[in-house]
Design brief:
With 182 residues, the chain is of the alpha+beta class. The chain has helices spanning 22-49, 82-102, 107-130, 151-168; strands at residues 55-59, 63-70, 133-141, 144-145. It has one domain.
């Protein structure tokens, strides 16, 4: 018989009721709201100050701002499907919140999932309001450029890296199993 995960207070947590503490929900929601606000403010600033297609050099040619309208997903692929991606975003948002509710107590996971939720909400809001996502950060050297992205995309990418890190190094999320001698 395997032991239940060790809780934050040193006791064992009941895996059937892995409900989050209010503090974990506050971190999760706070991170998501912060990402959403930063994402929407940066997009609003860009739309007010940069014309569509205009290039603004920030750090020479290495980091530029370009007002781009992404009607697709996944770095601009599958364009002209904003409604489908809006619906898919709603499903993903529900899955993120559901996973957070069931996934044991971990500050690390609350932060990662908050980043993921905030990014998904930021891009969904664009799709609902505008019919496309505003992308604007362009990084590269000369003609070799990475895909243009926004703050929501950066939060999603960071969350994915954190979740990969948690999969590779489970100690990051604090899940440890006690060895049983019997």
């Amino acid at each position: 018989m395997s032991a239940a995960p060790v809780g934050e207070a040193g006791g064992t947590a009941d895996t059937t009721t892995a409900a989050r503490s209010p503090a974990h929900w506050l971190v999760f929601g706070g991170v998501a709201v912060a990402v959403l606000i930063v994402d929407q403010l940066t997009k609003a600033w860009l739309v007010a100050n940069v014309s569509a297609g205009e290039v603004v050099n920030v750090i020479g040619d290495y980091v530029r701002l370009i007002f781009s309208q992404n009607s697709g997903a996944l770095f601009g692929m599958f364009s002209q499907n904003a409604v489908i991606f809006g619906i898919a975003s709603l499903v993903v948002i529900a899955l993120i919140v559901g996973y957070h509710a069931r996934a044991g107590r971990s500050l690390y996971l609350s932060i990662a999932l908050g980043l993921l939720l905030g990014g998904a909400l930021g891009n969904l809001l664009d799709r609902l309001r505008l019919g496309y996502v505003v992308d604007f950060v362009d990084i590269g050297i000369g003609g070799i450029r990475f895909y243009t992205f926004n703050m929501a995309d950066a939060a999603i990418s960071t969350a994915i890296l954190m979740l990969i890190g948690a999969a590779l190094f489970p100690a990051l999320i604090g899940w440890r199993e006690k060895r049983s001698d019997g």
